[in-house]
Write the structure tokens for this entry.
Amino acid sequence: MQYTFQEKLAPHQKLFLLGVMSMFFTLTRPSPYDAFMVISFILFFFENKKLSLIIIFPYILILIWNISVFVSYIDYFDRIFVTEYFAIGRVFGDARQDIIIKFYISMSSFIIAQIFYNAKSRFIDYFINFFIAAGITSSVLAIYGLIIGDIGDEVLTWAGRGKGLMDDPNMHSAFISVSALFCLYRIVNSTTKRTQFLYSLLFGVIALAVLLAYSRIATVNFIIFTSIMMFISSFSKPNAFFKFKYLFIFFAVAIVAFIITLSLNSDLNNLASQRFALTQSYDEGRGGRLNRYLLSLGYILQYPFGLGPHKFEQWFGEPIHNFFLSSFLNYGWLAGICWLSFVSLMIFYAIKMRKYANDTLFYTAILLGLLFQLSEALLHQTEHWRHMWMLIGIMWGLVAQSTRTANQHHKTVHAH
């Protein structure tokens, strides 16, 4: 990426980058990420940056989604209930706290969108570096946890699965996979074999960490989306495919290391056989995940204003584990329609405006990383995933940037 050193980072951008670097740690609420981001957001508005009106309209849908969440929680204001299942145990909180968290996380992506609408190439270059660094840190911690036998303490692991210092292996594997996409971006844009070697090595470490998280959907998504990224890169950059030679070597090494790990540890071998089966015990039966999805459709039709938070998991022992169904089921039709509309609009305009992006490959990496998270949202309760909402904000910011570029292009054409 080309930039001039006259492009100095603003104070809010420096704090934002520190927030990105701290994303590998999510075991406390608020997390260091939250502290850095809140200060960054405050500084952003004090620096009188331009705001994009294009970004405001889709986030009206998220605001309505939050209002629906608030209404569904009203009857719970004087109760204490389980809000989430973390790797470190159950975390208890009240309804007001849960509402504030959801509002903060979802609406923070609106400010992130405005930040990236104003972003220059130097800031984006740093952002990629910091995100890769955070992903590698999480990957190394997870692998280290398995090496030292952290399974009993479950700080760096959970039930024999690597997770680093994040809430659970699913969140961990989805997060570090975005870093892998950025490694591909660096490899394609590299001009030296040394750079290709370095980022291929980092890609291999992340690939091994994804495998050791034993997440079926993350593993499949990792293969699919990194393959798509390499395929698109091969057409957009000359000789891009030949730059992946080191990557294929390190990816093969990661697979071999994974196989050796399984062969040396019978417990992990059994875990892999269980985890990578097509279905799990909790997927099948009346109380299984798949049947819960079918049952939820009836409840959605029966309760247009939603069941309310955590009612479904009280009946079936577990939450719905699907962000899309959860919005309809827990918060009502209006919330479900708003979330589905928001995602549909985002994907439509992200694809439509890609050709006007200042850096189409970075744009593509963000889009693929976002689609990765949204596919995870079909099987997990991702509404508290900080990195997912960050990618949503970045995507809208880049869409607004591309729209501005397209408008300038059209004005120039008409002027001539």
Q: What stands out?
A: The first strand starts at residue 80 and ends at 86. The longest helix spans residues 386-415. The beta strands are 80-86, 89-94, 157-158, 161-162.
